[in-house]
Amino acid sequence: MKKILLFSLLLLLGVACSEEIDVRSRSEYQDFLAVQAVLNDRADEPQKVVLSRTISYFHEEKQPMVKGASVQVNNTIFKEMEDGVYVAPMGFCCQPLENYHLQIRLPDGEEYEADAQMPERGFEIEAIDYAWGGGKTMDSDSVWTIGLWGIEKELESNYIVTHAVNGLYEPFEKSLLIQDVYFNDHNVVAFPVEVFFQIADNWKQYGDCYKYLEQGDVITLEIWSVDRGFFDFLFSVYEGGQASIPLFSTQPANYPTNIRGERVLGYFAACPVARASVVVDDPFRTYYKRAVMALQE
Fold first, then answer.
1. Is the distance from CB of 270 to CB of 117 less than 8 angstroms?
2. Tens of pLDDT, residues 225-249
3. Which domains does the chain show, CATH number per domain?
């Protein structure tokens, strides 16, 4: 796997290249439909399509949500559960290698379409573990790594890697984009796939997904297999310096999209998800217990 830390990526690309973009003044910005439509294979999770409007680059207010649209994936109708958030019936999910067609019709009659095929799951997780990597007390900033056990299939795969603490996920911009180059058709043992920092400022800004780990906390790791088109879209979002939640808080530019229609941004994707969890027994444990136990067997 070739790992790219997205948070650091902004700095690297900022000095590596330049590209002319069209940034308009407050009065002449372009109004785009922003589509967030990333479905997965988890039947126990709600599948959502989120529609909003871009706002001026120079404004910081929350962008308006698009209400009253008609949203459908294949023959499944998504119902608007809150302003701009359209949810499939419970139990609906996508399947690997199946094709999906998204249709959106706005109240003013504008129509948008997109197609996606869910790739095969590139990585199967057998287990994860954690290890403390620094920090002296629970009152100081600390670092943990997440170790991974599993097998990567002999596929050309791209991944999003993210984690949660007690079901609360880190902000999207803190996730990793990973290109597979090393582990095809190989067992992965105790590989430190992610490093995360428990920092007081992050805790204040983002909430308990950045709390200091304590006994009994549950760490969850997710690996999303994504196709190359969606990977390139995500990479361009971070390359453009628009790493924010939601993705389109300010008006982006020059981003690829697979959505057909006028004045539209975003992407439609279907991604299989591999997931595993571990319960914290000692937050200051400096080794992967699973690896030590394997050596003792």
1. yes
2. 999 999 999 888 877 654 444 554 4
3. 28-119+241-271 (2.60.40), 123-226+274-296 (2.60.40)
CA distance 97 to 154: 16
Q: Please tell me the number of Cα atoms within 13 Å of 31 on its side-chain side.
A: 8
Report the C-alpha dihedral over residues 92, 94, 99, 105, rounded to 10 degrees.
50
Report the C-alpha gap between 236 and 256 in whole angstroms.
8
Residue 210 tokens, joined? 């950045």
* Cα Rg of the chain, angstroms: 20
Q: Residue 1 and residue 156: Cα distance in Å, rounded? A: 11
Coil, helix or strand at residue 34: strand
Residue 162 has a CB neighbour count (10 Å cut-off) of 21
Residue 243 corresponds to which tokens in the numbers above? Answer: 């790493």
User: Does a cis peptide bond (omega within 30 degrees of 0) precede residue 96?
Assistant: no
Work out the angle between the directed axes of helices 6-16 and 228-239 (0-180°, nearest 10): 70
pTM tops 0.90: no
Give the dihedral of Cα atoms 118, 124, 127, 128; nearest 10 deg: -60
